[in-house]
What we know:
Layout (H helix, E strand, L loop, with lengths): L1 H8 L3 H13 L2 H13 L1 H10 L4 H22 L8 H29 L1 H21 L7 H19 L7 H26 L7 H24 L11 H30 L2 H15 L7 H23 L1
Amino acid sequence: xxxxxxxxxxxxxxxxxxxxxxxxxxxxxxxxxxxxxxxxxxxxxxxxxxxxxxxxxxxxxxxxxxxxxxxxxxxxxxxxxxxxxxxxxxxxxxxxxxxxxxxxxxxxxxxxxxxxxxxxxxxxxxxxxxxxxxxxxxxxxxxxxxxxxxxxxxxxxxxxxxxxxxxxxxxxxxxxxxxxxxxxxxxxxxxxxxxxxxxxxxxxxxxxxxxxxxxxxxxxxxxxxxxxxxxxxxxxxxxxxxxxxxxxxxxxxxxxxxxxxxxxxxxxxxxxxxxxxxxxxxxxxxxxxxxxxxxxxxxxxxxxxxxxxxxxxxx
Length: 315
């Protein structure tokens, strides 16, 4: 119907594209799929970076730099400025450490050892742990459905962890435990961003400032650990590097639009899409093989998170 109306009125391709973008930016489900897909791209692109011997910290630096500088450019175009008061600076750096630097370094470190699919499953556990932290800190009242979702989600995570081949070796168990720290760090970030949100701050401003703070933290970390800042490594895989920077910026741009039209509960489901992309890309692009127990665990995690999401919606 939209196509025929535009054909009859002979609108230019630019007008057609503008209308399509308006429809896209107003659709929660399309935004959910796109945001989760961009988040999930970190997994296969991270594995490519690992194969090119790019340190996890350098790839995490690229993610934050891509998001931070592109969002800064967007803020400038909108006539906005970053607030630099004490409250905001504290928020920027603590968010950068808890929400970006630590989780991204963990994710990129375990991908070569455990695969993109297994690592992607970790995204789906963070809503459960976030709810658990919220209840423990008395930020929300528990109910039976939420507690049941926590138990189911933890059982699914345990099945996924046990399904890894060779987990009897100490090295594999170490990487599994490190992977399980990913949703813990993400959940801690979710709680912190909520309880310390600066009064009157715009979400994009906070995202930009925290990513730029992450760039500073990761730069210092790389200099201390590597002895230099080997930016030339990105030239080894230029296409993947550009894709990662753009994907990070697009993900956070769509992330805030999704939050606006879908709300925080709907937004939390991007982990499903990211995990699905991790499993699919691992199976088809990198020939990763998963046991039936892994897929069963993924389904059980999804059930657990669905239960906790429903509990959040009715609270």
